Structures are given as C-alpha cells and as structure tokens.
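Lab notebook: predicted structure, single chain.

Context: the supervisor wants predicted structures on file for every construct in the current expression panel, including those that have not yet been purified. This is the next one on the list. No modifications to the sequence; it matches the entry in the shared construct table.
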Amino acid sequence: MSIEILFEDEHIVAVNKPAGLMVHGDGRSDEYTLADWVLENYPGSKDVGEPIETKDGKTIYRPGIVHRLDKDTSGVMLIAKTTEGYTHLKEQFKNREVNKVYRALVYGEMKKDEVVVDAKIGRSKTFAKWTAIPKALRGTTRDAETHFLVLDRLEGFTYIEARPKTGRTHQIRVHLQYLNYPIVADRLYAGKRYDSDAPEKSLGFDRQALHAHIITFTDLGGTEQMVEAPLPQDFINILK
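Prediction complete. Output recorded below exactly as produced.
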C-alpha cells in the first residue's frame, strides 16, 4: 500500500492514513493494517512500542504506534521509528502537549459559531459503544473536553473544526452526538440520520466524515513541528 509520508526525521515519521485502514490488528481480522506497513518500511521498529493482549490470549503487536485513529477516519498520524522517539512522543501525549485539529461534516446547521463540550465519556447502557449523555452512562466515566468551530454552514449540514483537549476513544464522534450534530455517515453514532441506501443523507460519504487535519508536537531536538494532512478527495468534492 502506498501511504503518503508528511514528515520524517531519525526518530519519528508522520503519515497520512487513508480512510478504511486499521491502525493495528484487533485479534479477529487478518486484514492489512498500518502496523504492517510500518514493519515493511521500517523493520527496525519491530520492537518499538507496547503490544497488547486480547481477552483470548492473543498478542497484538503495535510497532511504533503511539496513538491511533479509527479505521474510517483519515489523516495525520505520528509513528515512532525508535524507542527514543516512542518515549518522547508518549510523554507528550500523556502531558497533553500534542495539539490535534480535525475537520468534519456534521448533520444539522450548528447555531453557535463556537462550542466547547466538557462532558464525561463512558460506556452506554443501551449499546456497545461510548456516550456522553448522562442518563445513558454506565460504569466508569472519564473527563473529556472538545472545542468546536464552525467553518461553513451548508443546507442541512455544517463544516466544522474540532480540537480535542483530551484523548478519549471516539471522543469527537461522541461529543458531536451529545450536541445532536453527529458526524455525517457515522454508522455508530448518527442513528437514523444515516441511511446507506440514501446517498443524499450522507453527502456521498461511505465512511464517517472525519479527518485528522493537523498535528503539532516537539521533536527530539526541541523544535515544534506542525504537520498537515491535505483534505481527502471526498471532503474536497463536497466543499467545492
């Protein structure tokens, strides 16, 4: 698979992950992943990072993987080529020193130009997914904060920027559901607003309309690096 490299130095590489590509295996599927690409292109990173164990005892190796994007989210991702790079990036993520900017298209026309959501995220009582809706929460919850900015309003849709201040699973998708402006074509969180048989309800997207646009971090030399992943073609088609 051809994956665009956006930035690279001795310890870190930033890539533009295409939608539809899993970051690493899940123990159930044998489909090609970004982790496979890393091993093919940077075999020296084989032992960089931390593997995880599944409930049935399988080991999932994650060479160089410091953070992740959902399978159907496109955009910029950082990968550590060395143990030094991994430790350096992991510490920045832990201290919330890595800044991320996403672009998304959502259902509905958002009334406010700027919205800050500070709502805890946890498992849902009803579905096997996450939620920020208080009455639907069950078990342990975790603080989560996301800043949203309206970039343009379309007929029945809104083009937005999202800046997560924490890094919870599905955070942007869950917080937009909480606001009742779910992401276009989000099969998990858009509910009845998404219909795979009605293209006009998904603006032609066959995946959730979420793109990791910019990431800012500090390299091992102390220089701040801002890396941008160009908008993918499905976004460009709509915005034209």
